[in-house]
Amino acid sequence: MDKFKEYNEGIKQRKEFEDIMMNKIIEKPHCFKGMVLNEQQRKEFEDASRFLMEWLSKNCHPYVKVIVDYSRSEILEGINNFMTEDYIIARRKSWATGVVEIIKKK
User: What is the pLDDT of residues 55-99, one digit of tens each?
Assistant: First the structure.
């Protein structure tokens, strides 16, 4: 009986999460469509980027990166890097049919 109760609780939590996400999509649909920048926004972005790039070049070594979002900015330093595409799994959705295809690189 506990397993059944656990399963139902999981379903309930999933449904609550989906409802929250759907409300976010309805409230801020631009967040889920992909941005389109006008010419002025592109210029403003370039100016802000150039300012940060200049600051980095004056204050940091060339092996740092910055991540900026709405609530924080972070300077990162890579100590080691290994790159492979052996385990990439991508999803491709056909906009015509709505079918999602999973692709695994070999």
Answer: 999 999 988 999 998 899 999 998 888 887 777 666 666 666 666
Backbone angles phi, psi at 100, to 5 degrees: -100, 125
pLDDT for the residue numbered 13? 78
Contacts of 103 (CB under 8 A, 6+ apart): 89, 90, 91, 92
Neighbours of 35 (CB within 10 A): 7
In single-letter form, the type of residue at position 10 comes to G
3-state secondary structure of 93: strand
Report the C-alpha dihedral over residues 8, 13, 16, 17, rounded to 10 degrees.
Answer: -140
Centroid of chain to Cα 70: 13
Q: How many CB atoms lie within 10 A of CB 56?
A: 15
Torsion angles phi and psi, residue 66, rounded to 5: -125, 135
